[in-house]
Write a structure and sequence with these properties.
This protein is mainly β. The protein has one helix spanning about 300, and strands spanning about 20, 35, 40-45, 50-60, 65-75, 85-90, 95-105, 110-115, 120-130, 135-145, 155-160, 180-185, 200-205, 220, 230, 235-245, 250-255, 255-265, 265-275, 280-290, 315-320, 325-335, 345-350, 355-365, 370, 375-380, 395-405, 415-430, 445, 455-470, 475-490, 495-505, 505-515. The longest helix has 4 residues, at about 300.
Length: about 525
Amino acid sequence: MKGLVFVFFCCLQTVFSFSQEFPIDFSDDADVFIGFEGSGFSKRLDPGNSSNTVGQFFNDGSSLTQGFFIDFAEEVNLNEENTLTLSFYSFDPNAHTIKLKLENGGTDPDIEIDVTTQAISGWQHDISFDFVETTGTYSRFTIFIDFGTTQTGTYLLDDIHNGSETQNPNPDDPDVVYDVLVWSDEFDSGNTQEVIDNSKWFHQTQLPAGGNWFNGEQQHYTNRIENSYIQDGFLHVSAKKEVFTDQGETKNYTSARLNSKFAFTYGRVDVRAKLPEGAGTWPAIWTLGKNINESGAYWQTQGYGTTSWPACGEIDIMEHGLGAVNHTSSAIHTPSSFGNTVNVASQEITDVAHNFHVYSVNWSPFKIIFLVDNTAFYTYEPAQQNSNTWPFDLDQYLLLNVAMGGVAGAIDPNFSESDMIIDYVRVYQSEDILSIEEFEETSINIFPNPTEDFINISSDDLIDEIILFNVLGKKVLIRKVNNFSYRLPIHDFFKGIYFLETWSNKKKNRNKIIIN
């Protein structure tokens, strides 16, 4: 070892909608509306400007409720921007009614505003829809033209905007911002050596089968204060050259390997650290699936070890020693790519042994972004998310360690001791992220799945509470149950992927739900 889910919403027919953000100017592939009840959408060139692409909206008159919708990658927050504008082109000299409707899948009331255009043909710019009396966040934007009539017509729209600043389309920008601190260790202490906080960290010392650590590493990991301690507000993970015998094996180096007693699904991790010096040192800041069946790992000792590596998933936030000095790397290990993984990137940064740098990962349901000093340099975003490419919809825990030798290369014969020095470890999630408490899982029956109108839920234990989350981790429904079964209506929610969390006698079960 050490070696989302794809989001979609279906419309009323069996087609897919696209996720977008403001402004919508029909210049990229995501600027696509889905027509329903006989409406159709396409793109075309602006009649007055052949270099400008616009959206073409067509009603065939077959229904009173024809319209078009698009889903947003990030929810529109009316508390921040509450006026929407657009440009409208009519081929006829008549007035038309444009209805804008904002929806969020059932958490807040849908809102809509009607505006009547001028009775002229051609473009009318900056038509304004004022939502100043409304608050809340909304994820679907629906347009109706001449709603409630069977009028046929073709119309053009362009420059749909809410006044927000244009976002950088850099694929390495975090798609979900995690800014609520949920767990940390600041390593506060005095100027004498102190033991680490064992309510937060576990020393993993048990050798794997065969008596050696993976990848040819040459150290023993110990729980001694000589190899891991807190002093002057910093954690020291200290690798030493010394003959040490443990578990019947004698090795020439010692170090420490710490497991966090906190595990989480989705979030951001920031670790501010200096790295050890010397050829053959291999410091790492990384995560493993809580379900790994590795003997001696903390969560294995708590009864969670059900899955072998790499099926449990591994996220290497920072490694140093696998390349030239000052080249740090980040990697992903999954069943589709492990060991000599292809999912890896490295970069050179400034004097890692004498300068603190902040090593980070931003892990969302959609992609995993690696950052150094808040600058993204690598994104893992597989085109297809399945058990081979994406075992990352379950809890992971943090590891901090310094290995010696092995694939890190020959150890400097003059090496005696060097430390990875860590200022802080911080984990952030969003305010409404999936529950972070750790409880024993319980068995439960959920059917049908996929579903359209209802989810039937039953359990041998009394069901206390049901929580439904969207793919961003936001709670969209909470129900108190106090029964052994419950029929949950979901016909008011957008089609797509959700997470259903059920609680029974302080036991938790989480299931992926598809609403179609």
